[in-house]
Amino acid sequence: MGLRRWHLVVFVLLAALALACEGAGTAAPEPTGTPKKGLPASMGALGDSITAGYGTCFTLVACSRNSWSTGRSAAVDSHYRRISDANAAIRGHAENYAVPGARARDLAGQAAQAVDDKVQYVTVLIGANDACADRVAGMTGTGAFRDQVDKALARLKKGLPKARILMVSIPDLYRLWQLGHDDERAVRAWRRGVCQSLLARPTSTAEADEDRRREVDNRVDAYNDALEAACDKYGKKCRWDGGSAHRVRFTLDLVNELDYFHPDVEGQQKLADVTWPGRINW
What we know:
Elements: H1 3-25, E1 43-47, H2 79-86, E2 94-96, H3 107-117, E3 121-125, H4 128-131, H5 142-159, E4 164-167, H6 173-180, H7 184-190, H8 196-199, H9 207-234, E5 238-240, H10 244-247, H11 265-275
Parallel strand pairs: 1-2, 1-3, 3-4, 4-5
Helix pairs in contact: 3-5, 5-9
């Protein structure tokens, strides 16, 4: 190779490297301005494995790109995607703070992250893990649950006084048992340790097991009442979903076939549909 040609090759490689470095070091622009047409320019999602998109990427790991809230995948018409269609300012400004296994006690830490990022719209879905303990006695008490949610909301209110909060009800876990306790695949998955306070001995019709399941169901109802009350106490910038997520009459087709518990992509889409508030200017 001639010297001149070698210099040209080196120049091209260095130019490509410079462009790559420039792209890697360029942060997304900070959100600016007020929400367009009642829509925010940034958002964040607080919660657990449901909001983290757990189990939607063909394995049992978090997969936030399919989240009903902040997901960016075309597979789910998430709140983020719906907002970005009408307000381009939000693009690149959706953060998912949800963590698989999170309980209400973890919500304040996630709220602090949302405050640090100065998001304008926050979705909250928490409580399934508070009910899904190893045994009924391990479920979070309703009073403690409410206190932990209030603590997180107080952090949001102090740090993000102008942000809109959407409080989402806990899906109907008892319905999952109703649908799956006669399905061999679901029973086999649940016996590996899924939500044992509710799903242990799933085929048993013994009175003690029936009572245990009802106790979990009642606790979820109590949590939802607490979430609604906490949102009402927060004030006008918090909106309760009216129990829409809990009322979904889902089928086993809306949960993944790995654990028969977490929503699959279609389930995430359903959650996005029923919780979508439209204009976010309450």
